[in-house]
Amino acid sequence: MSADEVHRRINAVWRIESAKIIGALARMVRDIGAAEELAQDALVAALEQWPAQGVPDKPAAWLMQAAKHRALDLLRRRKLHAGKEDEIGYELDTQHAIAQSEFAEAVDAALDDDVGDDLLRLVFTACHPVLSPEARVALTLRLLGGLSTDEIARSFLVPEATIAQRIVRAKRALAAARVPFEAPRAAELGARLASVLEVIYLVFNEGYSATAGDDWMRPALCEEALRLGRILAGLMPDEPEVHGLVALMEIQASRSAARVDAQGEPVLLLEQNRARWDQVLIRRGLSSLERAEALGGALGPYALQAAIAACHARARTAEATDWSRIASLYEALAQLAPSPIVELNRAVALSMAIGPAAGLALVDALRDEPQLQGYHLLPSVRGDLLAKLGRKAEARAEFENAASLTRNARERKLLLMRAQACSGSLMLPPL
């Protein structure tokens, strides 16, 4: 096996196993920053040794063992340091005893393979609400996705130094806040789980509809979010909203191949070739939605959005879409999690179910919403509804406004095409 092949093998194993390794180490040393450094040390050892010695039969186990040996060395140094301080009078005997006890516990922990619990702790720690959403996303992709700082930076089109600073500050913030490496108790679970789901969906959305740059989509981010969602569903099988989020992502991801043409230009929903929708992902999504519904209780925000996506997935043609049901689901979502963006989506559904005038009335009521100021989809939706009503000059102005607000080059081109279409006979379908 060539050195390049060995390096590819190492990278593949690392991408799959790094979260488990970091989780196990964090349980031992009680410090996420130190755990990641120890895991990276094991990775460096593999990069140094495997090209010469060959890839081990069980590469994941080799990395885990190497990392745990380094963690135990760190704990021994901590214990020795505590002992020296004790000898010169800086530490009490009880503190020395605690250090001894912690070391013994860590040795016991190193012998355990409680991977599921470790991963769950790592998920909730990386997505802790004490961090900003941007920091949670960066830290989650680094610790749970195994992505390098450069890969994360390229995915979000920001400088590598920016991502590096976010990760460093996130680790410091967790340490300063003394965030315990543990899954939240029942009383805290709802709020903490909401933060975790938000992070995963933020990653997915950035991949599904890139906010900036030259590409309409970034499939790698969608795949990473799906992987994280599936892991979480396996760790928390009795949480309906986890299955709801997975269902939503699976169904939306099923359209990926149909959302761009051969040149990478966007293809709008009603114009997509549904034969190109991934039926495997659709079946998986519908199965996850059924799982969420079977767990009982009212559907949460993600499960409701998944139910909306399912309406599109079940329609063999655009004309067969049950827009009335979609509008009613958006109404339920608006009552459960009210927001101007939900109302904007409900306006689109109403326009399709009842007529563009009904949708326009709802959109016009949103024009002064602070959250939607500068949001390019507000004038985009309004332009579409005005065009359907024959108010083409107004529609053109709205599309041009929307084009000036988006930071995505492909989307800007599409919106300018829609503006130009308002000057002639060409009509394009809604987003």
From TrEMBL:
It comes from the Bacteria. Coiled coil: none annotated. Residues 192-292 form the DUF6596 domain. Residues 21-79 form the RNA polymerase sigma-70 region domain. Pfam families: DUF6596, Sigma70_r2, Sigma70_r4_2. NCBIfam families: sigma70-ECF (TIGR02937). This is RNA polymerase sigma factor. It comes from Variovorax defluvii.
